[in-house]
Amino acid sequence: MTGTQHTGSDSPRFKIEAAGIHMAFPFAGDQHGVEVLSGVSFGVAEGAFVSILGPSGCGKTTLVKVLAGLLRPVQGVVRVDGREIASPSPDRTVIFQEYGLFEWKTVRENVEFGLKAKGLPKHQRREVAQRFIELVHLHGSERKYPNELSGGMKQRAAIARALAVEPECVLMDEPFAALDSQTRQILQEDILEIWEKTRKTILLVTHNVEEAVFLSDRILMLSNIPTKVVLDIPVGLPRPRPPELRFESGFRKIADRLWHALRSEVGHGRPADKRGLKVPVSADEGAFT
Amino acid sequence: MGKDKPAGVGHPPPIAAATECRERPNMWQAPAKGESHECVPSRRWQSFRIAVRLLPVQEIEHFVACLPMALSTKLRYGKSVVALAAVIALWEAACSMGWFATTILPPPHVVAVTLARMIISGDLLRDAATSLWRVFVGFACASLLGISLGALTGLSRGFREYATPLLEIPRPIPPVAFVPISVLWFGIGNGPAYFLVTFGAFFPIYTNALAGVLSVSQIHRDAALCLGAGRRLMLTDVILPASMPYLVAGLKTGLGTAWFCVIVAELVGAQSGLGYMIQLNRMTLQSEKVISGMIAIGVIGYAMNRLMVFIHRKVVSWRVESIRA
Ligand SMILES: Nc1ncnc2c1ncn2[C@@H]1O[C@H](COP(=O)(O)OP(=O)(O)O)[C@@H](O)[C@H]1O
Ligand SMILES: [Mg+2]
């Protein structure tokens, strides 16, 4: 955290930083492919809880994978503590929308996986895993397989697994999108509690406005494909945040503003790639360039 | 039922056969059929009349005997017993009507007696053990080869490009087509059997291992990478268990093929084992022994399949939905 050289950036030091990320996927019959990310740049301060809000299909998952080091961007770099990343690392764990739990492992074994990769001896693995299983309120389900868990419990297990390796940064890709609204709210509150306890740098990707406002210090909004950061607003709501905060006017004001911006993004932006339209666009919608 | 015994039709059955018959748990078989198998076509009409008298009695008795079982808690087994018994009854009936010469198709009770005798004498078990050993050796080789090659092909794109045509061309050749060449190569004995079993079992095992490795989902690979997994942990804790359902399915099919292949190999390329035994008895026209051998082959094959199903359930219990129940 300290004493790291700061290469190539004059901005204040960030825990994780994306600089001019371009990402394209090959598209049948087109050598250029579809450009998904088109110069996404931002930085996240250490210990912050930042949300990235974007319409569905705008490349949020792609961005998370690039930040994790699972996908190599066509152009641009990702820096962690000012150093360019080249591969995935347990310093940046990912919580996936589809959980990504190993179905052949019990909850405990799932949580122990990263510790096993670190080479921790067995008894120590179990001890650490137990601590994180309790942190996400999953004690009692240690020996269950993912197939035996509800969606919310699966995501809890995935959170425990991602936190158990003690990452510095946690990337969450729409972690609560597959859950019912009740479970989602409970998990949101739990994740805040966990964050306040652990103070990891959290980057949460979501398409859910209320979720972003409720959880974050700061919200970045993405445009439609080809994607850029179009809005960067702080969320000045006090912490700790009680569940009732969702009904207060301060909360609603920020949420409404984001809703508005998001709606106009969904309404106007169709994949209007400069290299050619990949999706048929009707005349009145084609104005967004 | 004894009073139905028609006088003067064929010869009385061997006394041992009659007693064996009575000791069978399913007592619905009429001993009269014991004689009718000796029928020659000229007496067909006579035996037909007997059969007409016998047939419904057998059927009814049989169904009455099976009904409570079928309705009991073990309904499934009851049903399979019904089906099995019906086929045997039909077979018995067909024989008692003299539709087939005994040398062509002996009636079931004669086969049952022969089978029992062969088991008691130990001949059948010896032959079965020989065949099973050959399956064991060949299957072990095939598993080793199939799994390692399948994994290698699945994991390395370069290797896949080299290996695919090489392995895909021999695949459609039925193992039977390898019998002549394998006898040429290995002579008569264990050699052709080992070879054929290995060849036959290899492909299902290989194909499934490959499919298994390719089936490992991206999200699991990604999750493992993010958690810091190295190559080794990725292999032992992600790829291997994730492809296990395919692997075991491949082994199950492979074992079935192996059993099939060993019999084929023994028909021509061996002087022991169940395949050789049925071939030998064909030459001496002892069709009841041939059929007994075939039944043994069927039963052993079925048992091996059940074993693999059991193992399959155990190994991939995390995948079976019923785990919730
Ligand atoms: N592996 C891939 N190959 C080709 N196109 C992809 C691939 N992954 C994502 N895309 C495309 O990139 C766009 C963004 O996808 P994604 O990142 O999953 O969006 P989001 O997570 O915001 O819903 C989509 O149009 C999708 O079709
Ligand atoms: Mg997504």
Structural overview:
The complex is a heterodimer of chains A (289) and B (325). Chain A has a six-stranded mixed β-sheet with strand order 6-7-8-3-9-10, sandwiched between helices. In chain A, strands 2-1-4-5 form a four-stranded antiparallel β-sheet, covered by helices on one side. Chain A has 289 residues and is α/β, with parallel strands linked by helices. Chain A is built from seven helices and ten strands. The longest helix of chain A is centred in the C-terminal third of the chain and has 20 residues, at 249-268. In chain A, α2 (107-118) runs parallel beside α4. Chain B is mostly helical and 325 residues long. Chain B has three domains: 14-54, no CATH class; 56-99; 108-322, Orthogonal Bundle (MetI-like fold), CATH 1.10.3720. Chain A binds chain B through residues 65, 68, 70, 87-90, 92-94, 96, 98, 100-105, 113-114, 116-118, 145-148, 161-162, 165, and chain B through 219-220, 222-230, 233, 237-238, 241-242, 244, 316, 318-319, 321, 323-324. Magnesium ion binds next to α1 of chain A.
- In total, how many domains does the architecture of chain A comprise? 2
The largest β sheet of chain B comes out as: none
Helical amount among residues of chain B, as a percent range?
A: over 70%
Fraction of residues in β-strands of chain B: under 5%
Q: What would you call the quaternary organization?
A: heterodimer
Describe the protein's topology.
The complex is a heterodimer of chains A (289) and B (325).
Chain A: E1 16-27, E2 30-44, E3 49-53, H1 60-68, E4 75-80, E5 83-84, E6 92-95, H2 107-118, H3 122-135, H4 151-164, E7 169-173, H5 181-198, E8 201-206, H6 209-215, E9 218-222, E10 229-234, H7 249-268
Parallel strand pairs in A: 3-8, 3-9, 6-7, 7-8
Antiparallel strand pairs in A: 1-2, 1-4, 4-5, 9-10
Chain B: H1 15-23, H2 32-36, H3 44-71, H4 75-96, H5 108-121, H6 123-155, H7 157-168, H8 179-186, H9 190-215, H10 218-226, H11 231-269, H12 273-283, H13 287-315
The structure holds adenosine-5'-diphosphate and magnesium ion (MG).
Adenosine-5'-diphosphate binds next to helix 1 of chain A.
